[in-house]
């Protein structure tokens, strides 16, 4: 199976770190003109350099823009008027008891995790439909299905993404454009390293901490370790490729088997 994005422009939001960076690297490796995004020029430059070190000659564009705002979305549109693939990856998480989450915090989570992708889809989908090809992927989470007690607001935003992807897929029916969501489980990113280390400070090494974390907090994991960002990226690349026109409106699990429900 050859996955080739030569001639395609791909935007991955929140791609200076973690899953977004691994996804951008995957697209660059597969020949795409890849647009990296984050809020900070220095982190963007470092991300682009890290990809170029692994993928010599990678065709990269960097756009500093805060996608949680309408201004940020407009900045992206001005810099990159059309894309073939939009990966709405940007997302934040925080551990807060549900009864202590303020209105302001609920709104912030919706702006960053939900409206960011809605705005960009509104900007780029019509062009994709007119050209007869396009892919939109929302990076959701296993918490879309299994609401975490300590991150209810996060889980709610991730559940919303499943419905948004399904609705947008219906809006794009018959046009050659697909819209899907992917549901990663706990993934080995910098943020999760900090989260796991704080939860299990007594562990002797990070490897011991992550295994303890999975055993205590994700006991249903069939993978029994954190997922590597590239393992999430691989599913995003396949779903975004020309090989996957029949996968649309779907919620695709890449959570190491932690969700025990048979669907989605
Ligand atoms: N890590 C996990 O275990 C896990 C599990 C399930 C789902 N997910 C989901 O996967 C996605 C990526 O998570 P991650 O852990 O890889 O993220 P991460 O390592 O925390 O990186 C977040 C990225 O988003 C960027 N960012 C944050 N706010 C932004 C904004 N307002 N505008 C533009 N960029 C912004 C950050 O760049 P700057 O700071 O440079 O702006 C960074 O590149 C998220 O949607 C998350 O919910 C993660």
From TrEMBL:
Residues 8-189 form the Ketoreductase domain. The keyword rRNA-binding does not apply. Gene3D superfamilies: NAD(P)-binding Rossmann-like Domain. Keywords: Oxidoreductase. Transmembrane segments: none annotated. The keyword Oxidoreductase applies. GO terms for molecular function: oxidoreductase activity. GO terms for biological process: monocarboxylic acid metabolic process. PROSITE patterns: ADH_SHORT (PS00061). Belongs to the short-chain dehydrogenases/reductases (SDR) family. This is Putative short-chain dehydrogenase. It comes from Actinoplanes missouriensis (strain ATCC 14538 / DSM 43046 / CBS 188.64 / JCM 3121 / NBRC 102363 / NCIMB 12654 / NRRL B-3342 / UNCC 431). The lineage of its organism: Bacteria, Bacillati, Actinomycetota, Actinomycetes, Micromonosporales.
């Amino acid at each position: 199976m050859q996955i080739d994005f030569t001639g395609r422009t791909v935007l991955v939001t929140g791609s200076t770190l973690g899953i977004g960076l691994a996804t951008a690297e995957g697209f660059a490796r597969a020949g795409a003109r890849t647009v990296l995004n984050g809020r900070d020029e220095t982190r963007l430059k470092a991300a682009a350099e890290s990809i170029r070190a692994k993928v010599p000659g990678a065709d990269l564009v960097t756009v500093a823009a805060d996608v949680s705002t309408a201004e940020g979305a407009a900045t992206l549109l001005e810099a990159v008027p059309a894309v073939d693939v939009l990966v709405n990856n940007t997302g934040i998480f925080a551990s807060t008891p549900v009864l202590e989450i303020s209105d302001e915090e609920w709104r912030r989570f919706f702006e960053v995790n939900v409206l960011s992708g809605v705005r960009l889809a509104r900007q780029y989908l019509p062009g994709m439909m007119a050209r007869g090809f396009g892919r939109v992927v929302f990076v959701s989470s296993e918490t879309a299905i299994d609401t975490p007690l300590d991150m209810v607001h996060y889980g709610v935003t991730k559940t919303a993404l499943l419905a948004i992807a399904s609705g947008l897929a219906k809006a794009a029916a018959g046009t050659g454009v697909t819209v899907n969501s992917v549901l990663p489980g706990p993934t080995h990113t910098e943020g999760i390293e900090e989260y796991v280390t704080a939860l299990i400070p007594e562990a002797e090494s990070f490897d011991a901490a992550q295994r303890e974390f999975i055993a205590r907090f994700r006991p249903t994991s069939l993978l029994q370790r954190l997922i590597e960002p590239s393992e999430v990226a691989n599913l995003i690349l396949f779903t975004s490729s020309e090989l996957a026109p029949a996968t649309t409106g779907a919620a695709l699990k890449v959570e190491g088997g932690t969700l025990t429900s048979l669907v989605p």
